[in-house]
Amino acid sequence: MKKYCYQLIILGKDFGIKNEIIEIFQRRVEDLGIDWSSFIIIDNENCEEYTDSSPAFCIYLGAKTDDNNFTDSDFLTQVTKDASLLLPVVQGTLDNFGDCIPEILNNYNGINLSEEDRNQKVEQIVNNILEGFSLLKKNRKIFISYKRNESTNVAIQLYENLEKHGFDVFLDTHSIRKSEPFQDELWHQMADSEIVIILNTSDFLGSYWTQQELATASQLLLGIVIISWPENSDVIAKHAQISYPLKVQNSDFENSYIHSTLKEKPLSKIIESVESIRARTLASRRDNLISNFMKMAEEEGYQAYLDSYKIISMVKNDKDIIVIPAVGIPKSLNYELSSSFVEEIKKKKFENIFILYDATCVRDFWLRHLKWLDSSLVIKSLNILEVPTWINN
């Protein structure tokens, strides 16, 4: 039997969503440049292929029953005993959550799905799976760029609603402590973001700082959701490698007043758009990091190899080296996740392990923190900007 890298398990009673989850999940996996053959979809018909030795993420589709006789209970019990990640998904509201799932799932946080928010929630489910497999960053950081005198109400509204949907949102008026150097912290937060939301009001590009935010977001290869106000051009899209333009109309605002807040429908569309481009943004930034490293290594006469996990290996000074790309700012979690490769790495005799990252816009205090981690951990950090010097040492 083939050993699969990742197991997506879907159990319960399908209420017309199973195939949609699988199709979007496959697209996101391919967006990330990962071979789809590394995954297996497991349900009650092929549950004998399940193994507790490979990563697994289980979706349980819950629906109310008359006799509490829930589908796939035995296999579900096995999966929970193996401590696999598990996400219950129920129809309607969360008020009847307990009636739609087996008792064994009562302690799990779940997602409710209705026809009104179906697309948004499916994207959220798929991203939960990718995060569970550590294929997407868990911090879900979003940066809002706007002009205070033109769109503060919508910026605050987006901040509050995105936070409710599990995002870590940066808004200048809410996210920088009084003691922090404002501009340095702003660029630092942007460097660790996945998506920038631009509120493209009539004079958005009339400010030096909003111009700088757009230019920096483009330099960092961030995904950009561009929300253009009525009668305003979406020309900003040409500055972004990955962009999702949205146009709002007067009727999309409460009381048709553009300085008020957005209605629920356009607000939900924005959140759905943010969910849908996360994987493409991550893939673009990671691939750029990898390609720059491979090019630098080749220019210095070294042959670097890339495996199906997007891990780089090479020989330097007669030492086997492995390089793990990290998008955004390396934190202790990057090191922890990378350590999960250590056992397999040691089997292949790679004793020198590096976390590759881009230090653009990262604050000095954090770079010093990484140097401190380097002094105490087996895994070391490697700034892409310092690769040519590192190769020749």
Write the SSE topology.
Layout: E1 6-12, H1 18-31, E2 39-42, E3 56-62, H2 73-81, E4 85-91, H3 97-100, E5 111-113, H4 118-132, E6 141-145, H5 148-164, E7 168-170, H6 172-175, H7 182-191, E8 195-200, H8 208-219, E9 223-228, E10 242-247, H9 264-299, E11 305-306, E12 312-316, E13 319-325, H10 332-339, H11 342-347, E14 352-357, H12 364-376, E15 380-383, H13 387-391
Parallel strand pairs: 1-2, 1-3, 3-4, 4-5, 6-7, 6-8, 8-9, 9-10, 13-14, 14-15
Antiparallel strand pairs: 11-12, 12-13
Provide a brief overview of the structure.
The chain has 393 residues and is α/β, with parallel strands linked by helices. The protein contains 13 helices and 15 strands. 39% of the residues lie in helices and 20% in strands.
Q: How would you characterize the overall build of this protein?
A:
The chain is of the alpha/beta class and 393 residues long. It has three domains: 6-132, Flavodoxin domain (Rossmann fold), CATH 3.40.50; 141-281, Toll/interleukin-1 receptor homology (TIR) domain (Rossmann fold, 3-Layer(aba) Sandwich); 300-391, no CATH class. The chain is built from 13 helices and 15 strands. The chain has helices spanning 18-31, 73-81, 97-100, 118-132, 148-164, 172-175, 182-191, 208-219, 264-299, 332-339, 342-347, 364-376, 387-391, and strands spanning 6-12, 39-42, 56-62, 85-91, 111-113, 141-145, 168-170, 195-200, 223-228, 242-247, 305-306, 312-316, 319-325, 352-357, 380-383. A five-stranded parallel β-sheet has the order 2-1-3-4-5, with helices on both faces. It has a five-stranded parallel β-sheet with strand order 7-6-8-9-10, sandwiched between helices. Strands 11-12-13-14-15 form a five-stranded mixed β-sheet. Strand 4 (85-91), helix 3 and strand 5 (111-113) form a beta-alpha-beta unit. Helix 4 (118-132) packs parallel to helix 9 (264-299). The chain is flat. The two termini are 45 Å apart.
